[in-house]
UniProtKB/TrEMBL annotation:
Signal peptide: none
Organism: Bemisia tabaci (Sweetpotato whitefly)
Short name of any one Pfam family annotated for the protein: EcKL
Name this polypeptide is given: CHK kinase-like domain-containing protein
Coiled coil stretches, renumbered: none
PANTHER family documented for this protein: PROTEIN KINASE-LIKE DOMAIN-CONTAINING
SUPFAM superfamilies per UniProt: Protein kinase-like (PK-like) (SSF56112)
Positions of the CHK kinase-like domain: 131-329
Record-linked InterPro entries: CHK_kinase-like (IPR015897), EcKL (IPR004119), Kinase-like_dom_sf (IPR011009)
Amino acid sequence: MDLLERLNTVIFPEAVGAGCFGENVKKFIRFKVSSHPGTEQYCSDSTFGHVLLERKTGFCFGLPVFVKTRNRSKFPTEAEANSMFHNEILFYKTIVPFLRKYDRYDILTTSFPEFLYGKAGDDHNPEDDFIVLNDLRHRGFRRFIGKHLDENHFQLIMDRAGKFHGLSILWRDEDPDGFAEVTGRIKLLDEAQLWADFAEIKCKKVFREYMFRGVDPLREDPAYRDRLAGISGTLERAHERVDECMVAAGPLTALIQGDFHVNNMMFKYGADGTPVEVAFVDFGIIKLCSPAVDLCRVAFFSMSPQMKRDHWNQLLHQYHDSLCRQIGDHRLKPSFETVDVDIRTKGIHSYCCVATVMPMVISLKEGVQVPQRPKPTNLDPGGLQEATEAYIKRMKELGGADVTEFLVDIVRHMVDKQFIFDG
């Protein structure tokens, strides 16, 4: 049974029976697909369409929806996809209702899609995993098109991120047992391995070369070559450092989106083209850890070098102010210094992510084939070593000079802002 048939004969009739479209809806009529867009949602497939429903009064109406299903590619692995769908269903069905108790700004309504129906679990066919959301496009949201987000976009993101992170800080303090029980159901992923799987990195040496792609060019720069010992020491143990950044500890521990970049956001714009609202989507990698993981992820992926130089501290203050407003007159309200130190300590996590996945992202956009690791078949030891070295060199050059400079700029920024390394 294909997806369209399952939606029309099983999924949507079940949803109506469960009251997911409202108690006054008595009948599902049909689902019509409007598009299967080729968006950059690498971990799932997307289908947009309209559900035609009938109310108890006999009035028929259409509801625009977005249906998310498992993809059939080799990434992510089945175990990773199981965890992602489990987490996203847990977020919408269980976590969001708890967070609403503390949402004084109603951000969960204005900046998140409405969950309608979904299933995920290990006790059924993975092909039956699905999530149905209200289509944000019909609320006026659309994807950002461009390379770098401007200051207006970032101000909006920092404001809404602060309000979102503040909700779980309040929940954790006011209902510690409930918070621990629910968040304990989150399935954690090995993120460094997840990135490596996406990037088709097949050996540790390639992973190391990726980590140092933004560092090595600066060894010839007089302004930086004597300031690289700390970050170099950290990147020698990048996988372990990534794991350490995800440990839930300290006053800033919050529930984070976990994959916080522009492809997982949509924006609503005013008549003059200025963004007036942002919506966050895709909660398959939620976790309890430092908000720095979210903030630095979107900054490192989508902030121009000039903006990092001119507006970094201003945007951090925007985030801190928003976080404090959501928390209110609460004893857990953090100082700006606490937020700043946390970001400078945990921000390396996001550099490791960008350094791993950016070459693949650019290659997919440009249609460039990823080099394949040589196999020992029909190669003597010398030939295998030569082929392996050539493979590593090609992998390190994937995405071209633009990717290298992109990563170099992030390293410059971390060094200039005195990020805290352990080397």
